[in-house]
Amino acid sequence: MTIAATQKRNLPSRPGRSSGSALADEVQSALGWLKRHATKRTRDGMARYALPSDNALGVTMSDLKVLAKRLGRDHELAAALWETGLYEARMLAALVDEPARVTSVQMDRWCRDFDNWGIADTVCFALFDRTPYAWQKVAKWHDRRDEFGKRAAFALLWGLTVHDKGADDAQFIQGLRFIERAADDERHFVKKAVNMALRAVGKRNPALNAAAVTVARRLAESPDAAPRWIGKDALRELTSSAVTRRLAARG
Question: How does the average pLDDT of the chain come out, rounded?
Answer without folding.
Answer: 93
